[in-house]
Amino acid sequence: MKVGHTGITWGYPGDLEQAYRDVADLGYLGFETFSKVILSWNQEKPGGYRALVDRIGLPTVAGYCYKDWINPETAAKDMQEAKAEADALRALPGSETLVLQAGPRPAGGYSKDEFRRLADALNEIGRDCRDIGLRGGVHP
């Protein structure tokens, strides 16, 4: 069994590099961060997020992807962002799973139509993950 750790313990956004180093030093075999953090490091840091992975030597095995998914006004943007996050995660050595989280539940719970939109969105990003060699997992 492989056990990894998420950097959220160090706060969000917190000190990602310190979290990554601590997780590696503690002997965990994998790291998880918000997948949008990978994208921002790729845009803002020299060498991108990959430089951090290479320097510390611990794979980022999972990326946490939080989207609303059910709002028709943002659904296309959510999917575009999720696919970009999946691609950024997949570019890292040892990447395995895009962890999918649905946004805040509507007051009174989901309607049948919202459940259908959620299922359709999660199935679409799950297929995209599979097509690029990742697993899509649903956060409980």
Nutshell version of this structure?
This protein is an alpha/beta fold and 140 residues long. 46% of the residues lie in helices and 19% in strands.
Features:
140 residues; alpha/beta; 5-stranded parallel beta sheet; 5 strands
Alpha-carbon Rg, integer: 16 Å
Order of strands, main sheet, comes to: 1-2-3-4-5
| Structural class determined from secondary elements | alpha/beta
Shape: elongated
The helicity comes to 40-55%
Strand content: 15-25%
Give me the number of helical elements.
5
Distance between the termini: 20 Å
Strand tally? 5
Mean pLDDT: 92
Descriptive report:
- The protein has 140 residues and is of the alpha/beta class.
- It is 46% helix and 19% strand.
- It has 5 helices and 5 strands; from the N terminus they run E-H-E-H-H-E-H-E-H-E.
- It has helices at 16-25, 35-44, 48-56, 75-90, 112-131; strands spanning 4-6, 30-34, 60-67, 97-102, 135-138.
- Strands 1-2-3-4-5 form a 5-stranded parallel beta sheet.
- Helix 1 links the parallel strand 1 (4-6) and strand 2.
- The longest helix has 20 residues, at 112-131.
- It starts with a strand and ends with a strand.
- The model has no long low-confidence stretch (mean pLDDT 92).
